[in-house]
Amino acid sequence: MNKVPEIMAREGEPDPDVFVKADAFTKKTYRDVYSAIDPTRPNLSQKGKVVVITGASRGLGRYSFAASFARAHADAIVLLARSRENLSQTETMVKSISPSTKVLSIAVDVTDYDSVKRAFDEIIERLGIPQVLVNNAGVIASQCRIVDDDPDFWWRTQEVNVRGTFNVTQAFLKIVGPSPAAPTAIINLTSAAGHYVGQKLSSYCLTKLAITQFTAFLKDEHPQITSVSLHPGMIPTDMGNSASWLAPFMKDTADLCGGTAVWLSSGDRQFLSGRYVAANWDVEELEARKEEIVQDNLLTVRLNGRFGE
Ligand SMILES: NC(=O)c1ccc[n+]([C@@H]2O[C@H](COP(=O)([O-])OP(=O)(O)OC[C@H]3O[C@@H](n4cnc5c(N)ncnc54)[C@H](OP(=O)(O)O)[C@@H]3O)[C@@H](O)[C@H]2O)c1
């Protein structure tokens, strides 16, 4: 993948698609929902499933994942985040999209292991075993060069994005067990930024690289579960708007990654387990290239260089 400084150094008016083109794995790319990932398609129905979404109080958690899984008529959606007030607004939105979907909102800080564990005890008691987990909660607590950063802010991003993802994933794995009876998916929100170096984002970028590798470990340790790290595109949420220099490129819709997450949670997507997927990529082309992706172990993190013989 390209480096941010190389992309930003290109002359003239910024091309809003420059990052999508630079990171295109498929020939066709999208910036809005399209037919194959339309969550209202019968083959993508989430009926019968309990879906847990972290960071569901605003941003992608609300407008991408809660909205799209509601359109796909999940039996129940569990909304996790710290702000009760914002969670109740997401709950109202889900009910307006899909009145039959049960909603359970639990105020929880993902960095607090005991609270996360209690939340999962409540989920199992009230809704039973979940089949989908979207690890979406995330922060960018600092945007500084390493030499200037406040160590607590730098570490806070690690705590929420990495430890938070670990806490929630472990609680989920403990209740779904080693051989889940129903097809089960974990979608971890990563970012193309995990493969970039630049722009005072060392803490955030490292967390996203860690999440991509964490997902590969999940696939290795839990081969029966489909675990995918998803780059959602560039969407103008609170976080998306926090780096003003990225504003010209923030043109993906919330529905694009929402639909992609529903698609990843439907049918047989095992060939993408342990791998990185960008919401901008054409899922039909990914399917057509299944053999190549698996045989050549593509979309995984490697060290550049020539090694061995
Ligand atoms: N937007 C983009 O263009 C973009 C691009 C690449 C990747 N991503 C990734 O997508 C995910 C969502 O991003 P976003 O743009 O929607 O961000 P956002 O608008 O800032 O929303 C972040 C969400 O995370 C929750 N959260 C933060 N700290 C938490 C904590 N300690 N415990 C529980 N929940 C917490 C927030 O809820 P409370 O404050 O109520 O707790 C909020 O719901 C992130 O993982 C981000 O890294 C986004």
Automatic annotation (TrEMBL):
PANTHER family named in the record: CLAVALDEHYDE DEHYDROGENASE, SHORT-CHAIN DEHYDROGENASES/REDUCTASES FAMILY MEMBER
The similarity annotation says: Belongs to the short-chain dehydrogenases/reductases (SDR) family.
The entry's keywords: NADP, Oxidoreductase
Q: Name one Pfam family in it.
A: adh_short
Q: Which domain of life is it from?
A: Eukaryota
Write down what this protein is called: Estradiol 17-beta-dehydrogenase 11
Q: What SUPFAM superfamilies does this protein's entry cite? A: NAD(P)-binding Rossmann-fold domains
Species for this entry: Aspergillus udagawae
Q: Name one GO molecular function term.
A: oxidoreductase activity, acting on the CH-OH group of donors, NAD or NADP as acceptor
